[in-house]
Amino acid sequence: MYSGSAFLKPAPAIRRIEERATDCLKRCLRKLRISEIPLPVPVDDWIEGPLGIRFGIADLSHLGADVVGAAFIKDREILVSEGIVSQEPRYRFTCAHELGHMALHQDVRNTFHETDTGRFSRFQPYERQADRFAAAFLMPVPLLVRELFRVCDQYRLRQRECIVELMMDTPESAWLWKKRFLPALTRSFGVSLTATLHRFQDIRLQDGKSFLLPEHLEKLLRPGLPDEDFAAMRIVDGVPRRLAGKEA
User: Fold this and answer.
1) From the CA atom positions of the chain, what is the Rg in Å?
2) CATH architecture, range 9-138
């Protein structure tokens, strides 16, 4: 059985971003005098509360037609568009993205305006960094590991075999992700399917290998399900198996 987050770690390329997100989370815990991070992370409350940043929901159309969030570094203020408040994953990620600019880019410029087109595939490096900060803040590695184990227990899956299967590019892996793990993880962390999958691509095993290969990520992000493979899938002795003929 895996223990804690010992078998997973952030990719070296995002270590600085990961450290800043972790520092923000630890500061919130200290100021609130609590020992555990609640899920989903109350990002908007923590921005305005323990982190001491002014926070508001506003009409941001004057900043641009597609602007959903803004960070004003010197004024220590974050604004999120009123148009996305009802879309919880989008709203929460935007809050955390703007917090990322506050934590990472104080010496870059005073104002950042965010559009949410092309998340995780942005060409602007500061926006990509803020996306990764948001993912790290909302989905800390130790809690991701804990939730992976919890899903295994919930569905009576064998932990080692099923977590290893998640790293494979197989029909069994796709079924586990789409039918078991993604619904549970997106609900627990209050984030989108896309944000969850990209977060796992940024996580490494102790030997440096990616938890989620790029080609597997691309397949999991495609809409629709492989109906024939999925219809034949059953849990047998705690692992998914494709059964054929009368067995299925």
Assistant:
1) 19
2) Orthogonal Bundle (1.10)
Reported as type and span, the H/E element at residue 193 is helix 193-201
pLDDT digits (tens, 9 = 90+) for 15-37: 999 999 999 999 999 999 999 99
Q: Where are the domains of the chain?
A: 9-138, 141-247
In this prediction the pTM is 0.92
Ramachandran assignment for 203, one of left (phi > 0), alpha (psi -120 to 50 degrees), beta (any other): beta
Tell me how far apart the alpha carbons of residues 83 and 85 are, in angstroms, rounded to a whole number. Answer: 6
**Cα 45 from Cα 181, distance rounded (Å):** 27
Instruction: Give the length of the chain.
Output: 248
User: C-alpha 158: how far from its chain's center?
Assistant: 24
* CB distance 85 to 60 below 8 Å: no
Beta bridge partners of 77: 54, 72
Q: SS3 for 244?
A: coil
Q: Report how far residue 16's alpha carbon sits from residue 7's, in angstroms, rounded to the nearest whole number.
A: 20
Which residues in 88-98 are b (16+ Cβ under 10 Å) and which e? ebbbbbbbbbb
- C-alpha angle with apex 216: 224 to 170, nearest 5 degrees? 80
